[in-house]
Amino acid sequence: MDEDVRAAYLYLIKHSHPDVLCMADQAATEIVASLLAEFRRRPNAMETARISRLLTGLGSLGMTPADRSRVTAITRSAGESKFSKFLNND
């Protein structure tokens, strides 16, 4: 993973709602991170369709104003998962 994509991935993880993302979201998060990194590198050169995909991806992660109200936190079992601890920087 390129450094700028990695930075975008970590940004998405850090700014996601607590207990919303899980291991099953990793691939989608990587795709959105790749698009976000591309947008950050050259926002004016990014095709409209790719920006639309980025916004759709951000929405699916609950990271747009309209989608924030629709996210549902994952109910934790008795033990906290390793991924959850990672997301919460524990």
Write the layout of secondary structure elements.
Elements: H1 3-15, H2 26-41, H3 48-60, H4 65-68, H5 82-87
Features:
single chain; 5 helices; 90 residues; mainly alpha
Sheet having the most strands: none
Number of domains: 1
Shape call: globular
Got a strand count? Answer: 0
Number of helices: 5
For the residues shown, what is the average pLDDT?
A: 86
| SSE run | HHHHH
Based on CA atoms alone, the radius of gyration comes out at: 14 Å
Class from helix and strand fractions: mainly alpha
Q: Low-confidence parts lasting 5 or more residues at pLDDT below 50? A: none
Short recap of the structure:
With 90 residues, the chain is mainly alpha-helical.
Overview of the molecule:
The structure is a single chain. The chain is mainly alpha-helical and 90 residues long. The chain is 58% helix and 0% strand. It has one domain. The chain is globular and about 45 Å long. It starts with a helix and ends with a helix.
